[in-house]
Amino acid sequence: MSQEFAIKRVTAPDIAKRKGGAPIVGLTAYHAHTARIIDPHVDFLLVGDSLGMVMHGYETTVPVPLDLMIMHAQAVVRGSSRALVVVDMPFGSYEENPSIAFRNAARVLKETGCGAIKLEGGAHMAETIRYLTERGIPVMSHIGMTPQAINTIGSFKPRGRFRSEWAAFEADARAIAEAGAFAVVIEALAELLAARITKQIPIPTIGIGASAECDGQILVLEDMLGLSPRVPKFVKEYAQIGDGIEAAVKAFAGEVRTRAFPSAEYTYPMCDEAPEVTKKTKMTGS
Ligand code: KIV
């Protein structure tokens, strides 16, 4: 067996050990060919439920069924050999109680060969996160703006831009870390708060519209390639006409590893403070 094929996949514990170390690079992947191109350049591939919007034209991620996630995850696992594959649990497949979450998450692991699942939610999902991790299912959590909650939160706008909101997000982050999540995605959260949470919890934070101080970054592949009709402020488009997907992925991975991305234009400042206070305030942890 050649050296190339002998490399084992990155595991969830490998990602957990990267807390405070070299920035972790993630990208979404929904099918085999893009997974193959991205695989050598990232630490993990996320089969995100954003595939419902990107691949299937749904307006939100809410309608995505578990079987669809499993089908796309099987393709991504077949197309990759190195990066950790993390699969989103879709809306309705895990919230009801820990044993239903276990049954569905175990299906995802068994039927796809992925190495971890991701689920949305903070403190209220801690019991489920503990139940899954104690039974052999690595969990990446997802806080900040949580798209599956769109029908209760009402919009995809960024969170945490008022200090009055901070305590709840900080409590969420602590609860999921204590429950055993190996990493947490922080989506569309005020830059200052995302950086502060990163300092407070012992597991890696993966930013998307969060902070360059997060332990890693992720984007939706189609967004950073410029294929999506509308993208949030935090998306940097890396593909230039004539460049291949791989060149864009390499540019993204390089900028994450040097913390050049995300620069301030791709993050959210506070609403209730002057910009210079937001930028210069030292993190005290208090
Ligand atoms: O579904 C998805 O693609 C995600 C990322 C936005 C982190 O959850």
Mean pLDDT: 93
Poorly predicted sequence stretches spanning 5 or more consecutive residues? 274-286
Give the DSSP E fraction (strand runs of 2 or more residues): 5-15%
CATH architecture label name = Alpha-Beta Barrel
Total strand segments:
8
What is the CATH class name?
Answer: Alpha Beta
Spell the H/E element sequence. Answer: HHEHEHHEHEHEHHEHEEHHH
Classification by helices and strands: alpha/beta
What does this protein structure show overall?
The protein has helices at 3-6, 12-16, 32-38, 51-54, 66-79, 98-112, 126-134, 150-153, 166-179, 191-200, 221-224, 245-257, 275-280; strands at 24-28, 44-47, 84-88, 116-120, 139-144, 183-187, 205-208, 216-219. It has 286 residues and is of the alpha/beta class. It has one domain: Alpha-Beta Barrel (TIM Barrel), CATH 3.20.20. Strand 6 (183-187), helix 10 and strand 7 (205-208) form a beta-alpha-beta unit. Helix 3 crosses helix 5 (66-79) and helix 6 (98-112) crosses helix 7 (126-134). Mean pLDDT is 93; it is low at 274-286. 3-methyl-2-oxobutanoic acid binds next to strand 6.
Précis, in short:
This protein has 286 residues and is α/β, with parallel strands linked by helices.
